[in-house]
Specification:
By secondary structure, the protein is mainly beta. It is built from two helices and 23 strands. Strands 8, 9, 11, 15, 17, 18, 21, 22 and 23 form a nine-stranded antiparallel sheet that branches. Strands 10, 12, 13, 14, 16, 19 and 20 form a seven-stranded antiparallel sheet that branches. Strand 21 and strand 22 (286-290) form a beta hairpin.
């Protein structure tokens, strides 16, 4: 029996490096496509992922801010000890920066506190959740993005703990999905154990609110720092309680609010692609939306 169990799983371990500089790349998201398995490289570029036999014929995708996505067959991935990602060479448009006064502010908060309900997160692999913010002509006098505010949720089946996640801003594609990063720099947020609200100051980037809007996305990292063990009781189709299931998951969980259906555009990144993510609350006939606020300044 021990030999049988061993033969069902294999563990991939290695380092993710920059192809040009040969330096480790932290927080690369590594996901087996069409499965619930995945991990992220840690702060030193190292990773470890246990792969089940049923996933050996699938593909695995590595993605990280500032690098080209890379895909392998899982069987080939298992043979590698070092993976090199190619940096994206971006030609940036010339930008004219006018003087910033920052004596006027406009907060875009699409929810009220009494609308907060549930949350997004606690996955077993890397993922992203995002919210579209459309442009409005009233933003003309406060056109610079100053800060983002994110609410964190406790989650189910565990006590609140410290966590790390990445914040990204995207332009909008023709299909109304995230397209290109507006900030080509990792913004890694560390939230303390008791923290319920995180504020990310973006004033130094001098980003003008795009005329076709933008996406703000929150990226979960499957790293040891975020790992938690949780358990819950399984319930069968007849409502009868069965065995207690134990599993590894990753914090944080991002607070959500309930809105009228189709009022907000929510997107999700999983299995290597972006897709629109309208999660309904069947009883209340409403939609779950991530609780993200945006503050503009002049």
């Amino acid at each position: 029996m021990p030999f049988l169990v061993y033969s069902q799983e294999q563990t991939a371990k290695g380092l993710v490096l920059d192809e040009d500089t040969k330096q480790p790349i932290p927080y690369v998201n590594i996901s087996i496509l069409q499965s619930q398995l995945g991990t992220s490289s840690d702060y030193d570029g190292s990773y470890s992922l246990t792969i089940e036999a049923v996933d050996l014929k699938k593909e695995i995708k590595l993605s990280s801010l500032g690098y080209k996505d890379t895909t392998f067959l899982v069987t080939n991935f298992l043979k590698l000890e070092t993976i090199k990602l190619k940096p994206i060479a971006e030609m940036l448009d010339e930008v004219l920066i006018s003087d910033k006064f920052e004596n006027q502010f406009l907060k875009i908060q699409p929810f009220l506190k009494d609308e907060l309900y549930g949350g997004f997160g606690m996955g077993k692999k890397p993922w992203q959740i995002g919210l579209y913010f459309p442009f409005d002509t009233t933003y003309a006098k406060t056109e610079y993005i100053q800060k983002i505010e994110v609410l964190l949720s406790k989650g189910l089946g565990f006590k609140r703990k410290a966590s790390k996640f990445r914040v990204r801003l995207f332009s909008v594609s023709k299909d109304s999905l995230p397209e290109t990063d507006l900030i080509n720099e990792n913004i890694i947020v560390t939230a303390s154990k008791k923290q319920k609200e995180v504020i990310i100051n973006l004033a130094k980037y001098n980003i003008v609110f795009p005329k076709n809007g933008l996406f703000i996305t929150l990226e979960g990292l499957a790293i040891p720092f975020n790992e938690i063990k949780r358990s819950y009781t399984m319930i069968d189709e007849k409502g009868k309680k069965s065995k207690v299931k134990k599993e590894t998951a990753y914090v944080p969980s991002f607070k959500a609010f309930l809105s009228e259906p189709k009022k907000f555009l929510v997107v999700h990144y999983s299995n290597g692609i972006w897709w629109k993510y309208p999660i309904p609350h069947q009883e209340k006939k409403k939609q779950f939306v991530p609780a993200i606020s945006l503050t503009l300044s002049n």
